[in-house]
Amino acid sequence: MPELPEVESVVRSLRDGSPSLVGLRVRSVDMVWPGVFSPLLPDLVPSHLEGCRFAAIARLGKYLVFALDCPGRGSLFLIVHLRMTGRLFLVPESAAIERHTRLALMLDHGLALRFDDPRKFGRVWLADDPETVTGGMGPDSLTVSLEEFAARLAGHRRHLKPLLLDQYFVAGIGNIYADESLFRAGLHPLTNSAGLKPDEALRLHTAIRSVLEEAVAAGGANIDGVFKAGSFIVNVYGRAGAPCRVCGTPISKIRVGQRGTHFCPHCQLPGNMEA
DNA sequence: CACTCTACCTGTGCGC
DNA sequence: TGCGCACAGGTAGAGT
Fold this sequence. Notes:
Layout: H1 4-16, E1 26-30, H2 45-49, E2 53-60, E3 63-70, E4 74-81, E5 87-92, E6 101-107, E7 111-116, E8 123-127, H3 131-134, H4 146-154, H5 160-165, H6 175-185, H7 198-217, E9 221-223, E10 227-228, E11 232-233, E12 252-256, E13 259-263
Parallel strand pairs: 9-11
Antiparallel strand pairs: 1-6, 2-3, 3-4, 4-8, 5-7, 6-7, 9-10, 12-13
Helix pairs in contact: 1-7, 4-7, 6-7
The structure holds a DNA duplex.
């Protein structure tokens, strides 16, 4: 389940790895599953992409944004969201298309950029301006300032868990890091954002930043037997019934806004939650 | 504005 | 062993 740290890890490996994607030119496009471009008309994709050269790679929330230089048309952006199970990686062009391969871009030097996604949730866009795809998202959760975060919190009257998951509030947090951040902040997931005291808002901001920074440094999360992008060890996500690593109380699991939500009932006191 | 539900998908793991 | 089914979750969109 790629969230901000996992997406950042993909950006870094494609940009800073050897070989780097930056500088490579698209020679041809294999539209293995055209639906990946939905709702764009897939017929138009190859003619837009062929001849374009990868110039830069960035991350906006959970989106990967590839800036391309295209002969005769200037800049173009290829934008990818991995959603639940998408993976993006460089392979030798001769590598076989696999069962879950959805898109392959044939590049210079016998390389190919592959997008594999068993669940078909992941999506790819082409745009002259990435804002047409990512526009409206909140500030990046890795870099948002305390002042802006606190002001945004006060502007809503919602439970903290669904608020953190809302990409229009802050961008980049998913179910794993929402639960981990609330645990580190010592805040119950049903705490109402509008009633947060200044020190609680500070704790939450600090927790989000430190959790995400540690997870980025670790190359993403390592969730026992489920998900293994990197080596970040979770405290609550997926640990229902297991002892809290701080106090030993069994971790609780509830549903909040249709989402599995994990927390320590001792370390994360109900506070100002309603009901 | 806040919420809930549904749809989109398929691999996994459970109970029987 | 095998079957059926709940479950996992990011996001959009519709409905309450």
